[in-house]
Amino acid sequence: MQGIDFDEAIRLHNTWRRQFMNAFARGSYADMPLSDHQGCMFGYAIAAADDASRALPQFQALIKAHTRFHALAGEIQELSSNGMAEDADLMLPELSDASHRLANLFDELRTLQRDARS
Asked: Is residue 87 part of a domain?
């Protein structure tokens, strides 16, 4: 498995999530990069992963969870932009759950990577 700095990936993704949540709270998220993982450095790490990493079921789950996270962020932004802020607010716990799911998958893959080096 290609070495991915999972600690840095978690840090970068949490930074992105905090920026989104802060922008959302201020109502100024219009410029947040929400789709295609633009502005999310972990999206770039996923894209750069080798074929052996991509073949792992845990990595496939990570890709799916990461895509879902950004889709939720996009839905929240769209609802809020369309005057449905209360509906958007109701989705924030789901976004938080998706973020925790990502962190768990990061941990699983970090363990696999560590074991592969041993």
From this structure: yes
Beta carbons within 8 Å of 17's beta carbon, 6+ residues apart: 69, 95, 99
Tell whether pTM > 0.90.
no
Say if 1 falls within a structural domain. Answer: no
Task: State both tokens at 116.
Answer: 């592969």
Calpha distance 1→97 (Å, rounded): 27
- Provide the domain count of the chain: 1
Instruction: Write out pLDDT tens, residues 49-82.
Output: 778 778 889 889 988 998 898 888 888 888 888 8
Tokens in use for 103? 């962190």
Domain hosting 75: range is 6-117
